[in-house]
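To: structure desk
From: M.T.
Subject: fold request, one chain
Message: Could you run this one when you get a chance? Sequence is below, nothing fancy, just the single chain.
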Amino acid sequence: MYTETITGRTLLKNKRTVIIGGGAAGLMAGITSAQTGSRTVVIEKNKKAGRKLYITGKGRCNVCNNCDEKTVIANAPTNGKFLYSALSRFSPKDTMDFFEKHGCPLKTERGSRVFPVSDRAGDIVDTLVRVLENSGCELYSDTVNDILIENGEIRGVVLSDGSTMECDKLIIATGGKSYPLTGSTGDGYAFAEKAGHTIKPLRPSLVPLETQEHFGYDAEGLLLKNVSVKVIDTAKKNKCIYTDFGEIELRRYGLSGAVIRSASAHMKNMESGRYRIEIDLKPALSEETLDARLLREIEKANTGKYTDILCTLMPKALVEDFVKISGIPSDKRCSEITKQQRKTIIDTLKKLTRTVTDFRPLEEAIVTSGGVSVKEIDPKTMESRLVKGLYFAGEVIDVDCYTGGFNLQTAFSTGVLAGSNNE
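Reply: Done. Structure tokens follow.
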């Protein structure tokens, strides 16, 4: 093999690697590929790379989870075991070491979630791009319109102006179809299908939920903090399939927020009415403790309206909806509240129920579930089993995880493995 040495690196002159997509997986694949000596180009359709990274973790970027490889796999409900080799090659510890080594200090928060100390997602993007450029990888702004395959092998890509860029290795790291404004428009699925790959049905994951019961205008956008949630599957004899604690956002269409997005990942085969969300507005208080508090408030308020008591138990914006749900008239005087009505108030506080009718659109999801079938990808290299020289990395693959930094870890790990010199 003919080689040339430049600034201490050996370039494989007869090999060029092209990566489609400059997100988390694509940038990490580009860094790894260039460091192996391959002439590498990352082609990104946006003017700036890592656009989706900027909005992850509410702009803070939950870069990974401070855990071992088994925990990542356990938090990947779809094809988690497929990630074994990728995580062995590049673990959460490796991710943390990478950013720390390259000048981006990290911190670990609740749930072992890792963020940049600065709380700025831009620092993660800047680090990846800086290391990419220092590795000798070219970041090229253009759109890939087609891929070229000849005799079962990758030959190159066709750019927006019709010109061809030849390559011996092509890595598709285009992301899914969630948040299309960031460039995730599903291009990779079309390229994979052209190569003969099976695309597992796409559905939203980590997405808000539409519910049968609607909140009023006053409650729109209201954040309920420190509440607990249960997801009940009525198709499994009312089995509780998920519990969580945290923050929920009330929307006119239903429910959003981190807890709800996490819950959505556990809802398989969505059918209207199948899943029920039970919200405990006062998880720290038992029913007995809550009843005692309610009695004290009633005695204090005496002839005042019982809605005044509700304002001491919940945000004022939720009171009108709560009254409708409880069925107790809003003009009811505290002194007139019966024991049964007290029980109704407590039951509603401890189990505010919403019936799920559907996921919100895929465009609103954090992650796309579904994608290129893992059966057609070699998990030890990320290479296609159908086309030589074709590789996949990141969300385009049919693997998805719960929230907590696990999806980004999957992108980094598969990106590193795909970008490695696997020959």
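Reply (cont.): The chain has a mean pLDDT of 92. Let me know if you need anything else for the meeting.
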